[in-house]
Amino acid sequence: xxxxxxxxxxxxxxxxxxxxxxxxxxxxxxxxxxxxxxxxxxxxxxxxxxxxxxxxxxxxxxxxxxxxxxxxxxxxxxxxxxxxxxxxxxxxxxxxxxxxxxxxxxxxxxxxxxxxxxxxxxxxxxxxxxxxxxxxxxxxxxxxxxxxxxxxxxxxxxxxxxxxxxxxxxxxxxxxxxxxxxxxxxxxxxxxxxxxxxxxxxxxxxxxxxxxxxxxxxxxxxxxxxxxxxxxxxxxxxxxxxxxxxxxxxxxxxxxxxxxxxxxxxxxxxxxxxxxxxxxxxxxxxxxxxxxxxxxxxxxxxxxxxxxxxxxxxxxxxxxxxxxxxxxxxxxxxxxxxxxxxxxxxxxxxxxxxxxxxxxxxxxxxxxxxxxxxxxxxxxxxxxxxxxxxxxxxxxxxxxxxxxxxxxxxxxxxxxxxxxxxxxxxxxxxxxxxxxxxxxxxxxxxxxxxxxxxxxxxxxxxxxxxxxxxxxxxxxxxxxxxxxxxxxxxxxxxxxxxxxxxxxxxxxxxxxxxxxxxxxxxxxxxxxxxxxxxxxxxxxxxxxxxxxxxxxxxxxxxxxxxxxxxxxxxxxxxxxxxxxxxxxxxxxxxxxxxxxxxxx
Length: 600
Description:
DUF563 domain-containing protein, alpha/beta, Glyco_transf_61_cat, TPR repeat, glycosyltransferase activity, elongated, Serine Threonine Protein Phosphatase 5, Tetratricopeptide repeat
């Protein structure tokens, strides 16, 4: 502080006491020129105006004095940023909100506030912040991209696509927007638009997908990519029609592919509930010199070198990208007969059981003898249950051929069964849940094999399938729930610690099963008719897959929806899963135990 200011303030106080207010005010004004942030000077100045009866002037002075106690918008913004670095999301939100009160027209603050809110899973509030940012900054491509991400997290994929398209229109040179557009169009079932944007993206940015796919040793020469080849015209949505010659195709193409339907699409309607829909058809496609590419999340099937058989492809945006990148991949040629069992997420227990293994049923009913098939393309076999189930079904280890996305495999004869349960969305809206024949296949093949395979010992009648070893979709009050359920005679089990046969036996003997939504409930397919199945969901996510399964098997199904745990400040989802976007399907569950008791 300037050394003259204290002296001036001291003289001004004496003048006020002696009634010389006007002179005191003049000294204060002189003092403020030396130090415009001195609280004492404003206090004396306000008193001076008050003694002269100048209330409005005194009010303005006191308002200024009040504002001296408030940090500036810049300071609040910086404090918010510091809290973000420390992952103190609630404190960051408070600082950003105070910054907005001071500077309500700053788009940058709204952007940062939205990010902090999203870390607390408060997506609707975050969306409102980004929308305000866009109103203030209408030509920000980044803002529209962030809006799209948040809308996806709120399960509003169509609105997210609109946001991504706005971002693309503002900045069509941004390579990252192509990844978002292709993925979101594919997830929305719009395969043609996904492939169209993949073509555009690869043409503008040939190395766009290098960090996503295993092409490190291949030059990204545009001439090696399928650019300008009108890829959308080479999509075959119905292999069955194409094999019959219903599509325009050369005689040579038609002779190279054959198709046989095993199960027609069937209607599913749950009488006492509002759920209804259709199951996908079950069929077999046989392709001479057919090609397939697959990884843990996608499978792409190509006939005739450049025809995408969309009805037997699974996955999201990668289907479009790999089709566009096909010419950049090396090809591994395999002699003889090869059957493709690999599907999207095929390593996960649910998809392994309801999508991968039932394709073996389609092969057999389609007239193919398993021992005459030279190899079976499967998702990487990493878990014991994969080994156990393949062995039970008579597929010897030497015939397992794992595919990992590093090349296309071309088979002399490629046999591809359709995806039994999780058919690609671009083929239509099918009900979320396995067809009846899938449930019957699993029971027929595994329940008889179970009998007598394990020494008979008592199993609990009431079980709770815990998710203590899961990284996401955990029950945040699970220990409390386990103790609560003990009072009703329930035993908590960790299925990961059991062999496949032990899991089958445990579920086949249960009378009541309580479980959070997750792969463990797949084993409800082995329950006896009349078994009560109580499924626990988070407040933002529901799935009908186990409800449909229960309907087919005559199980008594009940669903319990959890509380909004975000208001309870108990989620550490992002800390446990820093690389996983908090989509509602992964969200943790908080169960109201009193509500759960009503369903027991």
